[in-house]
Design the sequence.
């Protein structure tokens, strides 16, 4: 690739042109992982992710380009928008998993529709009945118990997803297990949100 | 060299600040010996305009012609104005914009114009103080301002002839001034109770990066409400009925009482009211606190919500490392105790809560002017979710509140009727489920969808929020691949033409000298030409040979340089030269677009609401 401004060669990792220091567009085909300088994968250290986000923000943020050319201002806006999207998606383990599935050709929403788990749905119906009753009676003790229980289930799901992604080359079966785990996690996220008014709102995927 | 400035455009008072040669932010003395310029504008019968202290002092005498707390009207539609804010003002209700009628209805002014008068004075004072022209500017807005309110603030800046670099949220600006001062790290809550607005932001400060985690607020809650409840009590105690005229006098008395009770336990004064009446004000601090407690308590839920959104409310655990107070109303002892009870710690009060926002704005303006500072970066969020109206009036959220800006998101929608060729896109802001409970931002119709069975068309709607927190919407029909150019007009905003017209009118009224007027006009014209050429390059760049384009770009460069000077004749000359050089390009574009229009197919007006594709 060549620099849009001075036409000299620019590497795919170069945020700025090595020759003229002008901001470069994101390389074609780059995914959200590469927006943060990461290679594609589920296992991410949250502190490292946060540090990368801050470092990239310092380089790309529109505040650094208020006096730059219109083209650089536009690139800065585009790349920062993308960086923010990447950070938002990757810092949440379940959003990250859903995004990875999409990159691997499995749309978690579409695939989940083919899954049938009557036992799980039965369990959810019972749980929701308990929740509705406890809310009606403002039974704080039961609500706290329900929230803790749902959080434990979420933790177990996250562990299962991590284990499946850690397989050398997750096959069709492993990917579908992840789809199913993510679909189940949605139910528990909603339970936490309703049982614990101090919980931050659940993020869409 | 022109120096960048930061402006805190407040409900009751406004300030301007800059960063001095020793890198310290300083406020400019604007009104006698004070840095605070009362946000008061008096439209005199002779056509003159008074701003600041003089206007405020005359407010009791000319209440209808003196606009106070205009910030409460910014970006609002006629239906949004609260009864208590209507006060004694007369409204010109002929259009979709809020207009205040002054001078016996001979003149009507929009809130944007009134705000621009205040900004103009601040700009002039800054230029005098700095003995030179003013450069780029940062304007602060309440974090909880919605899109229409932000747009209105930006329009006011433009109308005042300011080059608005950026809108920055008030609590974030305060954090910047504070954090730099203290070299702090950790999580902070900024509690900002101004004259008319309340904001709370939770920020994480790491190595100079100020990352806003969450924000909450109420654009209709502030120190003005304290004065109002106290004033109503004073009138009742003096057996006076609460007419808007008397209320304004009583509010002035309430301000004095409240300020005095910050430092003493008891006050007893007599205040002259219009019509020769006297208001006896006798109040203890306990009385005051009993009166204002309900107002203060309205901030609790908002603070808890912001802590929750930041993920800091769970298990009643450790909350924040520090709490910063911003806004004059936080001087009230009751407010301080209340903040302490919410966040579980003594608030920090080292900096003057009245000036800290302007100081932070100045730091940010200076940083932007210098192409960013290595030691500080602000990462802010949008305060309210942005969504689109679906079938049945429900709102589908596209960008969630507390998303770091700039942000962008895309969703696909489809048609709901066979042969549907149009789609109404209604952009909304707010957290509620139904469109009627959210703020309407813009509404437009996407036309030219090829007729096909329901559910087959694919329309992609993209929301983009820029670094000022302002939204742009675009829509694209995917089966034809044609992206339609859509002019999104804000529901309660001013159109480009309206801003231009006001700009010219306001300059006529202001009676400033001719050179200054031309300078403003030609700079705006220059900016307009540059922007339209740059967007034309993007759309129709192929109509130019590289040489022709370089020829035009050279002139744009010259024009840009001229625009940084105060030489309006030079700017005018460069504008003419740029115009001349781009004439052939303009003709070619015209021909191209005429040809396209002739080939275009007929689009009928049938338009329906959007709905998601069937397989979602
Ligand atoms: Zn280069």
Sequence:
């Amino acid at each position: 690739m060549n620099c849009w401004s001075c036409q000299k060669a620019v590497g795919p990792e170069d945020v700025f042109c090595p020759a003229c220091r002008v901001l470069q567009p994101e390389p074609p085909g780059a995914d959200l992982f590469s927006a943060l300088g990461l290679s594609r994968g589920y296992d991410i250290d949250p502190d490292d992710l946060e540090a990368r986000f801050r470092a990239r923000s310092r380089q790309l943020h529109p505040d650094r380009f208020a006096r730059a050319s219109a083209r650089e201002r536009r690139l800065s806006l585009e790349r920062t928008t993308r960086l923010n999207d990447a950070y938002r998606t990757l810092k949440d383990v379940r959003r990250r998993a859903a995004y990875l599935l999409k990159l691997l050709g499995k749309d978690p929403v579409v695939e989940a529709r083919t899954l049938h788990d009557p036992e799980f749905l039965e369990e959810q119906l019972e749980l929701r009945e308990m929740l509705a009753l406890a809310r009606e009676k403002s039974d704080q003790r039961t609500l706290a118990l329900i929230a803790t229980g749902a959080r434990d289930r979420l933790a177990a799901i996250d562990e299962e997803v991590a284990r499946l992604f850690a397989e050398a080359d997750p096959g069709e079966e492993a990917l579908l297990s992840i789809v199913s785990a993510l679909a189940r996690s949605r139910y528990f996220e909603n339970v936490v949100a309703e049982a614990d008014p101090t919980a931050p709102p659940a993020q869409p995927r | 060299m022109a120096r960048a400035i930061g402006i805190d455009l407040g409900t009751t008072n406004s300030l301007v600040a800059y960063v001095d040669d020793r890198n310290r932010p300083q406020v400019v003395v604007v009104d006698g010996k004070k840095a605070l310029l009362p946000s008061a504008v008096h439209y005199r019968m002779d056509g003159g305009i008074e701003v600041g202290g003089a206007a405020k002092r005359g407010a009791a005498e000319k209440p209808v012609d003196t606009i106070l707390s205009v910030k409460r009207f910014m970006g609002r539609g006629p239906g949004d104005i609260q009864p208590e804010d209507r006060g004694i003002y007369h409204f010109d209700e002929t259009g979709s914009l809020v207009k205040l009628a002054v001078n016996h209805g001979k003149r009507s002014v929009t809130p944007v114009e009134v705000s621009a008068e205040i900004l103009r004075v601040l700009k002039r004072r800054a230029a005098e103080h700095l003995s030179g022209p003013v450069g780029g500017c940062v304007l602060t807005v309440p974090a909880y301002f919605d899109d229409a309110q932000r747009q209105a603030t930006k329009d006011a800046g433009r109308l005042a002839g300011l080059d608005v670099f950026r809108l920055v949220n008030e609590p974030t600006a305060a954090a910047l001034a504070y954090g730099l001062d203290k070299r702090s790290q950790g999580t902070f809550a900024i509690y900002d109770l101004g004259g008319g607005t309340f904001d709370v932001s939770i920020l994480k400060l790491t190595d100079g990066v100020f990352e806003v985690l969450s924000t909450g607020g109420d654009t209709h809650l502030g120190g003005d409400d304290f004065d109002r409840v106290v004033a109503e009590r004073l009138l009742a105690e003096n057996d006076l009925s609460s007419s808007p005229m008397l209320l304004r006098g009583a509010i002035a008395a309430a301000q004095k009482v409240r300020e005095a009770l910050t430092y003493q336990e008891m006050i007893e004064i007599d205040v002259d009211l219009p019509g020769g009446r006297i208001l006896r004000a006798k109040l203890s601090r306990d009385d005051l606190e009993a009166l204002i407690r309900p107002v203060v308590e309205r901030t609790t839920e908002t603070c808890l919500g912001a802590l929750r959104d930041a993920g800091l409310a769970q298990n009643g655990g450790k909350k924040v490392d520090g709490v910063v107070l911003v806004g004059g109303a936080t001087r009230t002892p009751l407010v301080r105790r209340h903040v302490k009870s919410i966040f579980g710690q003594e608030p920090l009060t080292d900096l003057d809560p009245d000036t800290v926002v302007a100081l932070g704005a100045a730091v940010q303006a200076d940083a932007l002017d210098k192409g960013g500072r290595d030691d500080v970066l602000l990462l802010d969020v949008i305060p309210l979710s942005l969504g689109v109206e679906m079938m049945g009036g429900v709102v589908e959220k596209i960008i969630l509140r507390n998303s770091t800006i700039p942000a962008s998101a895309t969703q696909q929608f489809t048609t709901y009727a066979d042969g549907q060729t149009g789609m109404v896109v209604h952009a909304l802001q707010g957290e509620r489920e139904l469109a009627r409970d959210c703020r309407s931002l813009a509404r437009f119709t996407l036309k030219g969808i090829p007729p096909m069975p329901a559910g087959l068309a694919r329309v992609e709607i993209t929301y983009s929020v820029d670094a000022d927190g302002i939204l742009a919407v675009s829509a694209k029909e995917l089966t034809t691949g044609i992206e339609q150019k859509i002019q999104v007009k804000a529901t309660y905003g001013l159109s480009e033409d309206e801003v231009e017209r006001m700009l010219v009118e306001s300059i006529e009224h202001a009676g400033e000298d001719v050179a200054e007027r031309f300078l403003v006009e030609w700079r705006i014209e220059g900016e307009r030409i540059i922007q339209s050429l740059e967007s034309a390059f993007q759309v129709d760049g192929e109509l130019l040979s590289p040489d022709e384009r370089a020829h035009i770009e050279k002139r744009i460069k010259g024009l840009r340089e001229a625009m940084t000077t105060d030489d309006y004749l030079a700017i005018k000359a460069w504008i003419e030269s740029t115009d001349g050089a781009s004439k052939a390009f303009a003709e070619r574009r015209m021909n191209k677009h005429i040809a396209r229009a002739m080939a275009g197919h007929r689009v009928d007006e049938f338009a329906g609401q959007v709905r998601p594709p069937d397989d979602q």
Q: What stands out?
A: The pocket of zinc ion is lined by residues A 3, 5-6, 8, 17, 19-20, 22 (CB under 6 Å).
